[in-house]
Structure formats: C-alpha cells, structure tokens
Specification:
The protein is α+β, with helices and mostly antiparallel strands and 512 residues long. The protein is 75% helix and 8% strand. Among the domains are: 133-241, Up-down Bundle (de novo design (two linked rop proteins)); 348-500, Alpha-Beta Plaits (2-Layer Sandwich).
C-alpha cells in the first residue's frame, strides 16, 4: 500500500472545509436576503394610489347619478351630462386594474371584475336613457303651453264657429288630459294610462268640428301625450336598472377586499420581520463566536447589523408618515364629497341622503318635511358686470345670510351655479314654512354690495312638502321635482317671490 503524504491530506481537508464554509455562508446569506425582501414586500404607495382612485371613482359615480336625476326632472340635457365623466372613469378603472393585478387575493380580482362589469352595464343603460330622455323632455315641455294656447283659441274665433257644447267638451277634455299627464309623469300606472288613452280618444273625436289649423295643433298635443305614455315607464325602468347596476356597492366591495388583502400582506410582513429578528439574533450569536477568532470580522458584522436596524427604523417611520398622510387625504376627500367647495354648504349628494333620512323620520312621527328650491334672480347680471370673483362672493354672502336664519336641525345645500335648497323638518304649519321663505327672500335682497360693487339680486323660491307615510312614499326625487317646478312658476309669475306646489302636504291643523 502506498502511503498518502500528510501535507496532501491536510490540503484536501482544508479545501473541503472551505467549500462547506462557502456553501454555509451562501445559504445563510440567501435566507437573510429572502427574509429581508419578504419583510419589505408591502408598498403603502400602492395602497394610497388605489384608495385615491377609488374615492375619485365614487365621486364621479355620484355625479353621474346626479346628472341622471337632473335629466329625469328636466334640469339638464341627458346626452352630454351622462358622458362627460366616462373617459376619466375608464382611466381610473384601468389604473385600479393595473394595481390589483399584482394582488394575490382572488377576492380582490373578483371584486374588481364586478366593478368593471357594473360600470359597463351602467354605461350601456345610461346611453339608452340618453336616447329616450330628449323625446320625453321635449314632450313634457311642449304639453302645458300647447294646451294653454289651444284653450285660448277655443275662447276666440275658433270657439265661436263651433257649437258651444263641443267647445266646452273639448276644453274639459284638454284640462283632464293635462292633469292626468302631469300625474302620470310623477307616478305612471296602467290605470292612469288607460284614462289618458280614453281622454285622447275623446279629443280625437271632438277635433273634427274645427278648422284644419286647430286640428293640426290637437294632433301635436295627442302625439306628445302618446310620447309621454310610451317614454315615461321606459325611462323609469331604465333608472331602476341603472340603480340596480350597483356601482356604489361594487366600489365599496372592492375597497373592503383590497384593504383586507393589503392588511394580510402587512401581517405577513410583520411575521417575516419577526423571523428576520430571530434570524438576526442567531447570526449575532454566530458572529460573536466567530469574533473570538477574528475580531475584524466581528466589527464588520456588527456594522451590518447596525445598518439593518437603521433601515428597519426608517421603514417604520415611512409607514407611519404614509399612514398619517392617507388618513388626512381620506378626511379631506370625504368632506369634498359631501360639501360645496365654494360656500362650504352640503352638496346635492349629501342633501339627498339627509332628505331620505328626514322622510323616514317623518314617516315614523307623522311630521312634515319642507323643501324650498331657490334660484337667484339677477345673479347672471352680477357675473357679467363685475366678474366671477364678485359672483362667487355674492354666493358666499347669500349662503351665510340664509344659513344664519335656519334652525340647527334644518339644512341648506348648494346644487351648483346659483341654485340652493332649504330642507326643514318638524314644520308645524304652512305659515311657518312661508315665514322661513320670506326670511330667505329678505336676506337675499339684503345683499346690495360685494367687493365694493353695487349688486341687486332677489330669488324665486318653489316650496313643496311631504307629510308622514304618504310623503315618504312619494320619495325625495318627487319632492325635489315638485319644488323645482314651483320655483319655475315663481319665475314665470314675475320673480322675487315664492310659489307653493299644489302637491304640498301639511298637518291637518294647518290645512293645504
């Protein structure tokens, strides 16, 4: 047997130890890097961006709903208003999709898909609404003046050339048609549709006794009435389907699931941080052992450990700062979503929420809720003469003056432009509501100077009210629409005054 030299055996053993040490160092370093990366896996900036995008989407969705309501009551054309915010909403949805695509939670992906589908479904329904609404709005605007014009002709030469009984019957039929059409527009039903169809048949039978020119006007009225019969139920059904699209609920669901997923990632990061600390402690023990043999290596490892602790403290500080920033931005966005930025008053969205709650309380207490729709007279002249800065100051002065005359439980909202709404609860009598309306008129007229410029403004006020269970059944949209219509009647009556809607409901002691 040939003897192996001792030096060769020693060299081989040393190489083996170096190889083992290198592998051990590589494994320890890899594990350390893995734990460090997993302990820093959550990025608060992604969460902030997603939450801000979702809040902006919620605001745009609320504005979308408000525009649909305005188109429903004839306050704005449907098509332009319903498409203005869609490009921005699509962009925000795409951004949110890019952010949640990296999330590991299937629930987040499901919630995002539901939101995207709900918005697409709502967009399709809104486009259908925009196609039908102009015809309905045109017919509703055409009917009252057309009937009034026809009744005037019946009282003139046209009526003199036809037997009086026919004139009287046609006049009564026109009155019945206008009344039933207005009722049908508010609450369409099969019975009302049958009644209107019957009245239209009577009018068609009576028109043959008159001149071709008058027959043409009667045909135009009949056509408008049939348009209303066709389009009003269709539009109401589309509005119900739009509400059922559930974009608001989908936004809330996505926010909850994303928060839950992100919190899961944060908990996982904290768990890996614990592992990292324990692992660091183990390494420290090993390094202390190695330091007895190599002091220089001990110092280097101590410096590395110090840098890791500093990095951890910096990370905690960044998380705290990001969290505080997110909370501040969330509070700011929440206030902006509920208040008008110029006057500080509540906006339309918050008003509708308060009105729904007020109607619910009125249902329980059998009390009266009053809505006053205010439109400033002469405000456009202020803007045209002194500029928008002066106009903004006038709006702020009006808001401050009127709000000071209200009770703490009442509400004053700005809908936009020069339109305001007062909501009163627990109104004891019709006279009390009229006193508040007169106070508001007086306060608005008292604004005679703004920014050193003389101004002259007034207001036209439409008043409607709802009482108890019957008022709650009518709903907030009908109450606002009645007050809006009464405001237009106040403007047509000469401005600077108020008109009470015929549909207003009061306590039995006060009467109508």
């Amino acid at each position: 047997m040939v003897a192996v030299p001792a030096q060769r055996v020693a060299n081989s053993s040393a190489r083996r130890r170096l190889q083992i040490a290198a592998v051990a160092v590589l494994v320890l370093a890899s594990l350390l890097a893995f734990l460090y990366i997993r302990s820093d896996a959550a990025d608060p900036a992604v969460r902030n961006e997603v939450m801000l995008n979702l809040r902006e989407l919620e605001k745009l969705d609320a504005e979308w709903d408000a525009n649909i309501l305005r188109a429903h009551i004839g306050r704005a054309p449907a098509a332009p208003q319903l498409t203005t915010g869609l490009p921005r909403m699509r962009d925000l949805i795409a951004r949110v999709g890019d952010a949640v695509s990296e999330a590991s939670s299937p629930a987040v992906h499901t919630a995002y898909t539901q939101l995207r589908d709900a918005v697409q479904r709502k967009e399709m329904l809104a486009m259908q609404f925009a196609r039908h609404n102009p015809q309905l709005r045109e017919a509703l605007l055409f009917m009252p003046p057309a009937v009034a014009d026809l009744k005037t002709e019946l009282g003139g030469i046209e009526g003199a050339l036809v037997p009086a009984r026919i004139v009287v019957r046609l006049d009564a039929s026109l009155n019945a048609l206008l009344t039933e059409i207005l009722r049908y527009n508010v609450t369409p039903s099969g019975a009302l549709a049958a009644r209107i169809d019957q009245v239209l048949g009577e009018i068609a039978a009576q028109k043959i006794a008159f001149s071709p020119a008058l027959i043409e006007k009667v045909d135009a009225i009949i056509k408008s009435a049939r348009t209303i019969l066709e389009k009003r139920p269709l539009e109401n059904r589309l509005e119900g389907q739009i509400a059922a699209a559930g974009t608001g609920a989908a936004l809330d669901r996505l926010r909850r699931e994303f928060d839950r997923s992100f919190d899961t990632v944060l908990r996982e990061r904290e768990r890996y941080r614990t592992f990292l600390f324990a692992y660091s402690a183990l390494l420290l023990v090993l390094l202390m052992y190695a330091a007895t043999r190599l002091r220089r290596s001990y110092r280097i490892i101590g410096e590395v450990n110090h840098r890791l602790q500093a990095a951890n403290e910096t990370l905690e500080q960044r998380v705290a700062e990001r969290t505080a920033e997110l909370e501040a931005q969330s509070k700011k966005l929440e206030r902006l979503a509920q208040h008008d930025s110029l006057t500080g008053l509540i906006n339309y969205r918050q008003l509708t929420r308060l009105l729904e709650r007020a109607l619910a309380r009125a249902n329980r207490r059998d009390s009266v809720v009053v809505i006053m729709f205010i439109d400033l007279d002469g405000f456009k002249l202020v803007n045209d003469t002194w500029g928008h800065a002066t106009g903004d100051l006038v709006l702020q002065m009006v808001a401050r003056r009127v709000e000071q005359k209200l009770r703490a439980e009442d509400a004053l909202a700005r809908l936009g432009g020069d339109e305001f709404v007062i909501m009163l609860e627990e109104v004891a009598s019709r006279e009390g509501a009229l006193r508040v309306a007169q106070l508001a008129l007086d306060e608005i007229r008292a604004v005679t100077e703004a920014d050193g410029h003389p101004v002259t403004i007034s207001a036209s006020i439409g008043i409607s009210s709802a009482r108890g269970q019957a008022g709650a059944a009518r709903g907030s949209a009908a109450l606002l629409a009645e007050a809006d219509k009464a405001m237009y009647e106040a403007k047509q009556a000469g401005k600077g005054g108020f008109v009470v809607s015929p549909a207003a409901q009061w306590t039995s002691a006060a009467g109508n």
